[in-house]
Amino acid sequence: MTGIVSSGKSTLIDRLVNQGFWTLQETARLYIEREMAQGKSIHEIFANGAVLQRGIKDLQLSPEPGLQAIDATFLDRGVPV
Length: 81
What we know:
The protein is mainly α. Helices cover 49% and strands 7% of the residues. It contains 4 helices and 2 strands; from the N terminus they run αβαααβ. The chain has helices spanning 9-18, 27-37, 42-47, 49-61, and strands spanning 22-24, 73-75. The protein has a two-stranded parallel ribbon. The radius of gyration is 14 Å and the shape is globular.
């Protein structure tokens, strides 16, 4: 899915989950929440943009190889290849 901030992407993903579809949540949000749970501040997380982007990319790509082609899976964000 694609769209500007607050256009309803995550809301649509949540509704698809409720209807039983496979989904992957917004990776940047998950990455930031994970880093904060480890005690890092927002300032620390955003201090090094290259590390931030690499961490988000790695987290995004980690489940994708395991997705089954026969299952419809909706990604809040995807990495084009």
